[in-house]
Amino acid sequence: ARHNSYRGKKMAAVQDAPMELDAEKETKPEILSDGTSNLSGNTASGTLSSPPLTAGGAPKQEDQQTLIAVLQFLRRNKLTESVEILRREACLEDQEDSQTLDGSGGGKGDGDGGDANSLLSRVSIASAAAPQSTLTPIPVKSEYDQPDVSVVLSAYSQQGDPSLYQVYYSSLKNFIESVLDCHRAELSQLFYPLFVHMYLELVYNNHENKAKAFFEKFSGDQECYYQDDLRILCGLTKKEHLKGNEALLDFRTSRFVLRISRDSYQLLKRHLQERHNNQIWNIIQEHLYIDIFDGMPRSKSQIDSMSGSFAGETRREVNKAKVFYGLLKEPEIEVPLDDEDDEAENEEGKPKKKKTKKDSMGSKSKKQDPNAPQQNRIPLPELKDSDKLDKIMYMKESTKRIRLGPENLPSICFYSFLNAYQGLTAVDFTDDSSLLAGGFADSTVRVWSATPKKLRKVKSAAELNLIDKESDDVLERIMDEKTASESKNLYGHSGPVYGVSFSPDRNYLLSSSEDGTVRLWSLQTFTCLVGYKGHNYPVWDTHFSPFGYYFVSGGHDRVARLWATDHYQPLRIFAGHLADVTCTRFHPNSNYVVTGSTDRTIRLWDVLNGNCVRFFTGHKGPIHSLAFSPNGKFLASGSTDGRVLLWDIGHGLMIGELKGHTDTIYALKFSRDGEILASGSMDNTVRLWDSMKAFDDMETDDFTAATGHIHLPDNSQELLLGMYHSKSTPVTHLHFTRRNLLLAAGAYNSQ
Amino acid sequence: LDITNAKMTEREERRFAEVPRESIKLMAESTGVELSEEVATLLAEDVCYRLREATQNSSQFMRHAKRRKLSVEDFNRALRWSNTETVCGYGAQDALPFRPLKEGELFFVEDREINLVELALATNIPKGCAETMVRVHVSYLDGKGNLEPQGTVPTAVQSLSEDLLKYYQQITRAILGEDPHLMKVALLDLQSNSKIAALLPYFVYVISGVKSVSHDLDQLNRLLHMVKSLVQNPYLYLGSYVRSLVSSVMYCILEPLAASINPLNDHWTLRDYAALLLSHIFWTHGDLVSGLYHQILLSLQKVLSDPVRPLCSHYGAVVGLHALGWKAVERVLYPHLPAYWANLQAVLDDYSVSNAQVKADGHKVYGAILVAVERLLKMKALSLTLAAEGGCAGLPGTATGAVGFRENSLGLSPPPEPLSEPPLGIASHLQAGGAGCPWEEWTPVSLPAMYCELYSFFGDSLAVRFSTDPPLGGAPPSGSRQPLEGRKEPASGAPNLENTRKMPQLTASMNISPRQDGSPCMEPQPPSLAATVPGRSLARSSSSSSVSRSRSSSSRPGRSTSQSRDIFPKARFPLPQVGPPAFSFIIGGRQMGRRCQGRRFQTSFTPTPPLTTLPPRAYAHKLPVIGRVSKPVRRWTCSHYSLHLPL
């Protein structure tokens, strides 16, 4: 009873001074837990503390209602003295006289009293901490109208009774399972975020055993694609551990996004209101973002195709921003018409094609693609003479390109790395397929020549002084013939090299490593030029801009950074992913960067302003490969779940799902004309997909773009055009030569 | 760590490993610290969590290293993240042998003792790690996108080994040797061996030896068989060797081989075979070498237009063109025919004894040309039909007929040749290649015109071919005589609807054909026919068979004209006859229908309603043109009507 009086005083204080609440909230967790333990003088209840909550109004009426409820409770338990004190202190005399005689038959004993204590303490804490439920309880009008105590208590034991968490959850579960099928699928989306939040709250509030029991009971209900998260969660049972886990902290603070139709939402809201299941409601209010749309509820498959990410689905408005996905105007370069290779020209069908090719090139350079960004939206390096030569080479080669299609699949060249005991971690080819770089787990980068031409270093400065700089073949003379070899090793990193990328002009090579640096290597001297430090953690991937100069890197620090080769600090930092950025790619027009993450989402960032302009969810595992279609309109992504997803960048929609691989997809590449998508995986296969058909089948009209509800046809088998097996060589990288021969690379795995 | 692992294996049913507090206490004791139960419990839990966290982090390293196996190094990196000392001494990639101890639940990693002295003084110094290198494996596709068997070493890489050389010797010896059985085995192996890519140039060289054995038909034959085997070997990429093979084959087709001096040598068969082979090479590997088709055509044409060449060369050119498809015949042989005809005619008309051999050759050429142009006509007609497919589909008729017909059109699988016209820009090539070829001004000749012209050369023998050629006249007389009937009344039992179905355009031309007794295709017609005197041909035909005689005797002009029009769906004129026309459908032989009623099939046919269902006008107006083919040649009228006799 003495405790009760204390509590009553505290409550009165709280009620008298609601103004203080806001101030108190700032530093809530610590202060509150201290406060409660002091107040209650009861260790058991003292451990109950409340997590931070969002701000909101504190209607006085609610407090009053709480008090009434408490009074009722006290009375029922024959704690008349406390009742008196409380009433006096809370000035509630006027409200209730009729109820005073209500209580009858004591003898509940101290045990009950103790219970009451703990309950009340909770109530008090709750009322102090979070009186601002947006769900306004029924206002008190008369004594007949008074709410049931338990309801009100539950309303305020929001962080509350750990033992009731299971009840809350299962009552919601029962409800959702009982609703109509069309709503059930939508509402089922609530399970996972609620489960995680409730579990985390239990953990946060040190209800270790309750948390474990909760987990035991409900973890089995979650969608299978959340297994990885659940595995992490199940080991986490202490608040201290939670503190160290940034991903989960992010989960707590960020809002899980759900997309629910208005009907389903109303249904849920009504249910929660009827049942006064405020605990759930509060979590929904605070931790979830429900994106309500009008129209038909989505089907289970529709939902499943979009869910799976660590942070829920995409908010619709996120993908509304305009993306200039068109290609930049090709610089006009006069192609010298030499017919020295008329053999190729005479090839069947070739001359015609060449003609059309030229025409298209011409027309492309004449009129600007309406979806293309301004030519100078991002300052790009000027073309050097050598670049122009290379462009001419490229055009010549592309006239000899084989037109791929379902009837005409590419041949494949597999570059197997033998004796790579140290572990091959990354591979890249130059655009003209002349060089091949491998990053290895022993911190080395090796460069091979894929042509008979050997790799040579430039002569030393002293020797360079001796050569005749006026001679025509000066570029040849500067090379040191003695150093010619088929491969060169680049030493400098102090950890496994996870990403390598050639510059488009083939003069530089980037490598990113576990040691937290990105290094720029010269392929003239085969030395390291710069070490870019910024990521303090492993850098998982790096990629050169298609125009050179810029590059992007992403790593364990959950950000991607945009660099320019001549700046030692990043130009942009793209932050937003909730977990590691695992792969990064530049858009063909260099205005955008796409990143894939362990949080199972893909983000497209605008290089100009650093904004995230597209946010794609749908993968069920960390994303390990990304590829833009050559026309810049589409994106393909591959993840550990063995699926390739196709995205329409302009509309911000998923437009295809390619199922077939049985292991992580580490390599994706579109053919030069975009007709074929090749995917390479850990399962030792390269698969070819009919990307043209995939894109055509999915008609993205404005309606689907507006709602974002897509029906993915399950046509993976139709789209799968071919498959190449390797015996025991996981595919690490794929590349289409300029003539559309497919090159694949991987390390032979002898085990 | 070991203990964790131990526990992990011990209780697999647990969701995750736990470190028992006893272990913690033991470890603490080993470092001289006494722990209370409570502390040990807490520590155990924390250790457990940290281990799990580190393991989870380490899996990231594993994934990015693109491995399936978590290595100790991965775990160490994760430990470094959390500023924990790493585990040393387990960096080896080999799996650690993990052993349980029978007494007590103890698991440990086996750590064998190594005698350093022994190791240091060992004489068998292990080889250093092989250099990391890149090997290229090619899985190539043929031109049609079929995956060639994988894992073959690219030709460029493969070097010529002892074994291969031995193989080469054996094979060539077997093929060119005496033993036919050995030869067969060798050819079969050549056709299926996947490892002979490196020998390809050698074989090609051997084959190019055809020029030196032109006196020996047998050897030539064997070499051609060798070509065939090489071409059919799915593991071989012929590449530019196709050119060389083609030139060898062309040699056999076109050259006046030494062997052909002796008329007893059957070099004709060799040429036929070579021509077949040529077409096979072209259709399967033609895409490997650019402009191959064009080159072949050019050289064939050159031979054909060279009057100095012996007739056997001309024969080769014709069969070569024939083998290359009807398009080639249309482009090269057909325009060239008028010029060539004079020469051939001269040869054939010379009855002198000294000319006998040459004349026999001339007949060969004549026969070859005949076969070629007939197929040209058929294919051209067929291509028209196919082009007008849609128009046919709606052909009205009895219900069964309609259904049957539709089935027909479904079942109709276009023969590969006329449709798979090579996707080459033939015209452009030829223009580029120029050399005053007639194709520069070549314009497609309409089928009727072509037929007219050809008829002027071959006369009735041409038509005979039509009516008897098995592939088209599958249901022999009925199909050929009244293909339309077969078409309208498929249910009436014509077994080979598919074929009859293709016939309609030809019907018109067939009106001219009085002769039904199909002579074997290859039998050259008597030269007299070639003179194409209509009257003569008529006389001949009317006298040659009773069928034609009876037919020609009952000529009912009005009826048959309407009939011939009716053949084509677009009947521009109202049908003159009153009442439904009766079509006789004779299943059996030529005259059977007349005599035995049982074999005669009579059915009524409701006249075509005015073409509401017959859609494409293009088709409709195209076809009557063919129907009119026979008109300009008025002298044939009699034979023209003769076909309709049974009616």
TrEMBL record, chain A:
A molecular function (GO) term? RNA polymerase II general transcription initiation factor activity
Pfam families recorded? TFIID_NTD2, WD40
Q: Where is the composition biased (Basic and acidic residues)?
A: 22-31, 358-369
**Where are the compositionally biased (Acidic residues) regions?**
335-346
Annotated GO CC locations: transcription factor TFIID complex
Question: Could you tell me where the Polar residues compositional bias lies?
Answer: 34-52
Chief location of this protein?
A: nucleus
The biological process GO terms on file are: transcription initiation at RNA polymerase II promoter
What InterPro entries does this protein's entry cite?
LisH, TFIID_NTD2, TFIID_NTD2_sf, WD40/YVTN_repeat-like_dom_sf, WD40_PAC1, WD40_repeat_CS, WD40_repeat_dom_sf, WD40_rpt
Q: What SUPFAM superfamilies does this protein's entry cite?
A: Taf5 N-terminal domain-like, WD40 repeat-like
Q: Which CDD domains match?
A: TAF5_NTD2 (cd08044), WD40 (cd00200)
The cellular location(s) given in this protein's UniProt record come to: Nucleus
List compositional bias (Basic residues) regions by residue number. 1-10
Question: Where does the TFIID subunit TAF5 NTD2 domain lie?
Answer: 160-288
What PROSITE patterns does its record include? LISH, WD_REPEATS_1, WD_REPEATS_2, WD_REPEATS_REGION
Report each WD repeat as a residue range. Answer: 417-458, 490-525, 532-563, 574-615, 616-649, 658-690
Q: Does the keyword Cell cycle apply?
A: no
Question: What is stated as this protein's family in its record?
Answer: Belongs to the WD repeat TAF5 family.
Which PANTHER family does its entry note?
Answer: TRANSCRIPTION INITIATION FACTOR TFIID, TRANSCRIPTION INITIATION FACTOR TFIID SUBUNIT 5
According to UniProt, the name of this protein is Transcription initiation factor TFIID subunit 5
Lineage runs: Eukaryota, Metazoa, Chordata, Craniata, Vertebrata
Automatic annotation (TrEMBL), chain B:
Its cellular-component GO annotations read: SAGA complex; SLIK (SAGA-like) complex; transcription factor TFIID complex
Q: Which UniProt keywords apply?
A: Methylation, Nucleus, Phosphoprotein, Transcription, Transcription regulation
Q: TATA box binding protein associated factor (TAF) histone-like fold domain spans which residues? A: 17-80
UniProt key word Transcription: yes
Q: Where is this region: Disordered?
A: 469-573
Here the segments flagged for biased composition (Low complexity) are 536-565
The biological process GO terms on file are:
RNA polymerase II preinitiation complex assembly
What does the UniProt function comment say about this protein?
A: Functions as a component of the PCAF complex. The PCAF complex is capable of efficiently acetylating histones in a nucleosomal context. The PCAF complex could be considered as the human version of the yeast SAGA complex. With TAF5L, acts as an epigenetic regulator essential for somatic reprogramming. Regulates target genes through H3K9ac deposition and MYC recruitment which trigger MYC regulatory network to orchestrate gene expression programs to control embryonic stem cell state. Functions with MYC to activate target gene expression through RNA polymerase II pause release.
**Family affiliation:** Belongs to the TAF6 family.
User: What's the subunit arrangement here?
Assistant: The PCAF complex is composed of a number of TBP-associated factors (TAFS), such as TAF5, TAF5L, TAF6, TAF6L, TAF9, TAF10 and TAF12, PCAF, and also PCAF-associated factors (PAFs), such as TADA2L/ADA2, TADA3L/ADA3 and SPT3. Component of the STAGA transcription coactivator-HAT complex, at least composed of SUPT3H, GCN5L2, TAF5L, TAF6L, SUPT7L, TADA3L, TAD1L, TAF10, TAF12, TRRAP and TAF9.
Full protein name: TAF6-like RNA polymerase II p300/CBP-associated factor-associated factor 65 kDa subunit 6L
Q: Which gene encodes it?
A: LOC107679290
